[in-house]
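Supplementary notes for students who missed Thursday's class. We covered one full example, reproduced here. Read the sequence, then the structure, then the short commentary at the end.
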Amino acid sequence: MANESDFQKCKEARKAEIDKYYQTVLLTLGFKDLLEAKKGNCSFVSAEPRFFVENTRQELKPDMVLQYEPSRGVLCETKTSLPFPDVYLLSSLDQIEKYSKEVTGWNTPDRRVANHDILFLCHSMDSDRVVGKIQEWLEDGTLKVTKKLSICEWSMIISPKTGKDVILIRHRLGTTDCEELNQMLRANVVIDTQAISVKYEKCKFTRKEPPVEYLMQEFWVNVFSELNVKLEDFETSLTDILKIAYEYYIPWSNIEGEYSQVRQSWVSKALNAFAEIGLAEEISVNGSKYRILRTKKLPKDILDYFIEARCRLLTRQPQKTFTTDEQKAESQRSLEEFGVNEK
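Structure (token representation):
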């Protein structure tokens, strides 16, 4: 049996992974909101659409895509963290080199633009080292970037004025050919994460697969409530959940061919995870139908409960139970906060 230290390390690692994922979502949404509010020449096109190196089948997935007239674009790469050894850092920057090639996938009739630039957003904890190494590698030819490159740092902090979480974006090096974007970045950007999370409450996923506990929270609070408004056990299928998720979690944009935010494989993994911690039962031989056990009492912090329950399984720690009247009352208060009433 693993010890308590392994269990705590598991919880910390899972929380850190979830924080990184959601911070990336908020950063992308904040950028989208800023550009849409300005209603200027530079516009947010999409998050992680499918691009291809021109005349090849090499696929690229830029984290953000911006466009501005006449027929210009910006491919954006964001990083929550970067490895410290130089050899691994250089490998992590290969996407920037790929963005230097001519690519197709833009929101234009022929899927091309006349020219494009690159915007690289790294976390402030990495920015000094990254900016220094990129300058060095560009000068000696180790890193080959033929497009204009702008580098910014970002971080999430607690605002001293409001006491709320905000994302700060600060320009560090280089420019794009879009002066409107340059001016915005040089002015230092502040993103109110609470306002963004409320405004875009149905935009929660990037193309990258989210941590399973993050999915579980979203499904338990939002998708399952759409499937069954009462706080009771109910039967459903993978197909039904996927249909509701497709409808609930809106795409990043309205461009033709925009991908849905949720994948079938994600739904399957979430259902398996619910079953593993006793909140779902498989009722078909092929894993397509489940009984969701919504009457089970959960503590107030649902996400923390899912993390803890899964880490107990992973580290073979005994599972906690919630049976006292106080715990049941706390669970009901939590559900009411999410708009679900047991009565």
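Commentary. The chain is about 45% helix and 20% strand. The chain has a mean pLDDT of 89. If anything here is unclear, bring it to office hours.
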